[in-house]
Predict the structure of YijD family membrane protein.
Amino acid sequence: MDKQQVKAERKTLILSLLAGLCGNATLAVFTSSAVAFSIFPVIAFVMTVYCMYQDYLTRPMAEGTPVIAFALFLVGAFGYSAFLRAQAPDMGSNFLPLMICLALLVWVAYRMGVMKPKSKSQDDA
């Protein structure tokens, strides 16, 4: 993806990260006794999915964006899982969710062109 596509798809990518985070928080609210019940993760998840749907209806996604969006969804889900396990150590280790989250972030950075070396412009020569 080039930089113009990344700027155009930034909203979709941020919403997919939030959807993963809020989706895992919603699941934790309903299934985990370590998390107190709150309606706010459910509301945030519904609003995020609705905003993503409306964005999808208004303009098509560029090539490569759905894969990166899914990876960021998983980053949000695994990130919240690692955060939750750090708060409640009796739930288990947070090593695996952190490693998956970091590996996905490195892959996303590579796919978006963050890790590519900058080319010299003609002005510098």
